[in-house]
Amino acid sequence: MLRKAVAESVGTAFLPTAVIGSGIMGERLAGGNVATALLANAIATGATLVAIILAFGPISGAHLNPAVTLASPGGIPWREVPGYLAGRVAGAFAGVAAAHLMFGEPLFFVARHVRAGSAQIFGEFIATFGLLSVIWGCVRFRSSAVPFAVGEFAIRSNCCS
Prior knowledge:
Shape: globular
Number of helices: 6
CATH class: Mainly Alpha
CATH superfamily: Glycerol uptake facilitator protein
Mean pLDDT: 88
Number of strands: 0
CATH architecture: Up-down Bundle
CATH topology: Glycerol uptake facilitator protein
């Protein structure tokens, strides 16, 4: 179980590092063109997800998301769920800190963008349902495609939300 929790922690750390890092870099390099920054961030996020799932999937399943752990095809024993969640929380904090350090930002700070309300909750529900549908469909019919399908889903959902 320790190996799985560490894999989830490291995989999770890479994800916010890539998402936040590419967001900062995209904003800095896009010259004010928000569409270009969003596209760069979405592509980097999708590609990173593919790499993380390919690297850590054989060890922990590379769930990277509590909903994926809880709805995992084949199921995860309940005794393992706390290890997955603890690894993810630690990895998320480490990944955020790493991205901020790489770009000279304060280690941790309160976001400047308000992301709250019923529209945000509904969007998260739709994104989670879509992610689980992609995973379940691929696992059932073509499991080798899961990393690529999840990466593509991330690109499209980031560009369209």
